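Sequence and structure are kept together here, with a separate record for every protein. A complete record is shown below as an example:
=====
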Amino acid sequence: MSWARSHLRAALSLAALSARGATSEVPVRRGLSARLAPQEPGMEYQDAVRMLNTLQTNASYLEQVKRQRSDPQKQLEAMELFLSRSGLQVEDLDRLNIIHVTGTKGKGSTCAFTERILRNYGLKTGFFSSPHLVQVRERIRINGQPISPELFTRHFWCLYHRLEETKVDLAVVEVGIGGAYDCTNIIRKPVVCGVSALGIDHTSLLGDTVEKIAWQKGGIFKRGVPAFTVLQPEGPLAVLRERAQQISCPLYLCPPLEALEEGGPPLALGLEGEHQRPNAALALQLAHCWLQRQERQDSGELKMCRPSTPRQLPLAPVFQPTAHMRRGLRDTEWPGRTQVLRRGPLTWYLDGAHTTSSVQACVRWFRQALQVRRQEMPTGGPEVRVLLFNSTGDRDSVALLKLLQPCQFDYAVFCPNLTEVSSSGNADQQNFTVTLDQVLLRCLKHQQHWSCLDEEANPDLWSPPNSQPGAPASLLLAPHPPHPSGSLIFSCIAHALQWISQGRDPIFQPPSPLRGLLGHPTASSGASVLREAAAVHVLVTGSLHLVGGVLKLLVPSMSQ
């Protein structure tokens, strides 16, 4: 996301949650897109998003910024300027009762669990997250629902004119990138902070080791404000502990979810995958702490606290989850993360995993979900596995693809994060920070890496961390003889889905014929295989923007 646009979106979200009227204009920064902003009189949703898109930094300027590495502290100063020009002061944010969450993996899921739990208490919740999947208004949610196009449009133009007030009982705010210098870190007095699992990501901005990244994440800690984290490797955990001590922030380690389940029924989670359990455990602690600090009743009966070892952080309290908490965890929805869509012979598995750890978790979830699907609906006929993948930024796509190789996909499909060849009619999908040539060249590199890796598939990469020899075979995929997979590149997501689905998805029915997509021998022969398969299992992973584009086409209601 561009520098200026990220700040305006964050300012818009905070203004939409709590604002006072003011008249201002938003400053324009050098290096922004040269595209003309639309004329204001229409005041339509797409006009507002197009105006927002004019603040995207163009690709060449982004490269210049990466080389120069400007002072990150200036970003927070700029965010305060954006906020004040919208009619708000930093002090106004203190009344939002904020839960501030950072991390590399699972921070969005943690926020979703936390918001859903507290909404079950009858509280009016605000939720800011990024990026969006289909429409930019998804980033700002009131009571779990994206704000309406009308409300987004009105508040957007109010940033240029006059803001109106929408008050919530609390706001769950997800950090964008890092923490210390993220634009959300102008928040001075959150009620509680959280740090989900840490890993390697955004290395050009945050550093090339987990310890450096942990230092950035710990930047959201505030003096006297409780903070919670899940179990981390000793190196980054030590950094978080040191950051907390320097800031005088009480930092606690979350007990595993099993500790909270003792003495009661298992906790059902609305998000699939074992990797969601630490996120749920963190969400329970954040919600429990928020309720206690707000002196709310029914926050959960405390159990016996377990002593922590000298090397570890103090353990957070073990308590009995309330009925509200249980329902909140069960009813949590977070599209594009371990999501399954069943459409006749096609089953779509969607998970925006873009780090090595998250791809490992995705693979474990995929094989479990695949086995469940087979048990529920045995086909007795040929099955086909398809990978749809893309990655962006400075991520190591070779490492990600290597982890996916043992799945033994019949076909690997690569395409850029463009829903259609031309996205001019849909401002939510426009991206000026890269050129079309750049994204297509990256897809070609993905295909080349896949071809090279095809001969080196290592089934051991399927094993979860700390797996023991002789682990239950139920976690393994059904037998699938090794063979080289076919690979294809398509110019957009719509063409990729059209080839994969072969008209067999009852909802995704593109108007244009398939003829132009069958010129390549692999595309032609694969089309016959896909049409005749008893079941087609499609894993969509890598970039979350890719997953969002797929959902836009497969679930049209998300665009309404």
Q: What stands out?
A: The chain has a mean pLDDT of 82. The chain is about 35% helix and 10% strand.
